[in-house]
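Q: what sequence does this backbone want?
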């Protein structure tokens, strides 16, 4: 499970490009080789891509956040009231982006106050720090005595803070000087090599090309799938009862790798966990482009959700800005799972 998790971490399709080789993850085979030992075999490689991936980081603008605590009864009505009041205050000089999210962390008849409370989060972004600075903070705090009962926030609002944006870009492999430093300090020049085997000693090539399409590799045909499990009795339990998962960030996108331990579980998973099913289980993914890549040798599926992390981790577009827990959220969702697998 640990090795499979690492193979599926922050990947996309079966082809995994590196500066010196393209690994074919659909050819990886894992077998038990003793206590705490896993044998990796059968891995095929292909020529490296003609471009190398690099990153561009810039300041995206200014950001501020206020989290209102709503306690007890009438949570939706309290949230509606404070939103209406803040929207009116922000209308005088509205930020470029205003985002509200209500997390229903409350439960009825709670014996602990925190468990009786929900969180209403306001996030604002703008190129001008003044627009999302004290103007927003003051507007929020001035509501304290004239808003919903039990008004308070998780922390005193403050000034706006800059946030960064990470973008992937691609450069011609010949434009980058490859150097190996040996143990004795010798520096050995490694000429770049194209798919045709051509080598070039001197760096050359165009400027970086932004956008994921610049470094994209040709898609592989979908692998043949095993027949589905025969119909039988099921039990509604969490997906994590039989499946592991690992998720993470790839710029503004996220990936979720899911795997199972037996061939029968794989027969069920590959037919049950489609793109449409993932969107049903994780509704926050529904409005984004989702791709699915089956990896039969690993009994695994890898999903990429394009754009769910906004402009990347530093922009904090989500409660979980790196998508680290998307996989655990998916494992916690309940499905009708065949009893033969349980």
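A:
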């Amino acid at each position: 499970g640990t090795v499979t998790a690492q193979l599926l971490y922050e990947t996309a399709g079966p082809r995994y490009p590196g500066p010196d080789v393209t690994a074919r993850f659909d050819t990886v085979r894992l077998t038990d080789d003793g206590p705490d030992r896993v044998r990796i075999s059968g891995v095929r490689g292909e020529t490296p891509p003609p471009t190398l991936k690099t990153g561009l980081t810039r300041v995206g603008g200014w950001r501020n956040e206020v989290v209102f605590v709503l306690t007890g009864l009438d949570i939706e009505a309290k949230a509606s009231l404070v939103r209406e009041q803040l929207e009116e205050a922000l209308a005088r000089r509205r930020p470029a982006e205003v985002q509200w999210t209500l997390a229903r962390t409350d439960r009825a008849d709670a014996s602990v106050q925190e468990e009786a409370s929900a969180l209403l989060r306001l996030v604002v972004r703008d190129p001008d720090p003044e627009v999302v600075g004290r103007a927003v903070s003051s507007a929020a705090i001035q509501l304290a005595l004239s808003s919903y009962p039990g008004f308070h926030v998780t922390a005193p609002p403050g000034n706006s803070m800059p946030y960064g944006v990470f973008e992937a870009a691609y450069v011609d492999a010949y434009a980058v000087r490859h150097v190996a430093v040996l143990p004795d300090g010798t520096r050995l020049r490694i000429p770049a090599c194209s798919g045709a085997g051509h080598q070039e000693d001197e760096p050359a090539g165009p400027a970086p090309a932004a956008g994921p399409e610049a470094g994209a590799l040709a898609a592989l045909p979908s692998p043949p799938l095993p027949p589905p499990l025969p119909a039988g009795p099921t039990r509604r339990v969490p997906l994590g009862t039989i499946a592991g998962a690992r998720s993470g960030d790839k710029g503004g996108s996220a990936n979720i790798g899911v795997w199972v331990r037996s061939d029968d579980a794989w027969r069920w998973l590959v037919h049950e966990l489609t793109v449409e099913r993932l969107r049903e289980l994780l509704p926050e993914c529904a409005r984004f482009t989702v791709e699915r890549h089956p990896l039969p040798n690993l009994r695994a599926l890898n999903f990429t959700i394009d754009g769910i992390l906004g402009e990347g981790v530093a922009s904090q577009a989500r409660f979980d800005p790196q998508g680290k827990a998307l996989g655990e959220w998916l494992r916690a969702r309940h499905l009708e799972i065949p009893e033969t697998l349980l």
